Amino acid sequence: MKNTILLFALFLSGSIIAQNVSDKEAVEERINNYFEGSRTDNPELLKKAFHPNATLKFIGDDGTYKMIPIQKFFGFFTNSKTREFESKIYYIDISETAANVKLSTKYETYEYIDYMNMLKTKEGWKIVSKISHKEVF
Q1: How is the beta sheet containing 124-136 ordered, strand by strand?
Q2: Dist CA 104 CA 134 (whole Å)
Q3: Which of 11, 19, 21, 41 is most buried, judged by most C-beta within 10 A?
């Protein structure tokens, strides 16, 4: 009986680990859609990363709270240029159907530090909110 319980526990923990790896890969794929969509100025790649009702939030240059609906953000991308930046994922924290990702996009004279909140929807992992800090060098 003890062996059966031990085998079941090992099987269950292995399934959970496999699910987390799969979820982590899926979250990374969405973040890479965000990076590549930003880099190539491609709104269609960005749409793969974000939920259609997502929001972007930040403190503006004037020190006030700003919020932009994701559809307006998509309008900033027109497939007309390439952006050069270094991208980095600091961490991915997943809890079943919710995730938080800290990442950065570093340009020549400034860097964005972003916190992406994600949910596992029927369509897969989607960014539902992005909060940003802009560091000017």
Answers
A1: 65-69, 50-59, 124-136, 110-121, 98-106, 86-95
A2: 10
A3: 41
Distance of alpha carbon 58 from alpha carbon 13, whole angstroms:
39
In order of start, what are the domains of the chain with their CATH numbers?
A: 2-136 (3.10.450.50)
Q: Could you read off the pLDDT of 92-127 as tens digits, one per residue?
A: 999 999 999 999 999 999 999 999 999 999 999 999
DSSP string for the chain: -HHHHHHHHHHHHHHHHHHHHHHHHHHHHHHHHHHHHHHHT-HHHHHHHEEEEEEEEEE-TTS-EEEEEHHHHHTT--SS-----EEEEEEEEEETTEEEEEEEEE-SSEEEEEEEEEEEETTEEEEEEEEEEEEE-
Task: For residues 65 and 58, give the distance between their C-alpha atoms in angstroms, rounded to a whole number.
Answer: 6
- Give the pLDDT confidence of 66-91 residue by residue, as tens digits: 999 999 999 999 999 999 999 999 99
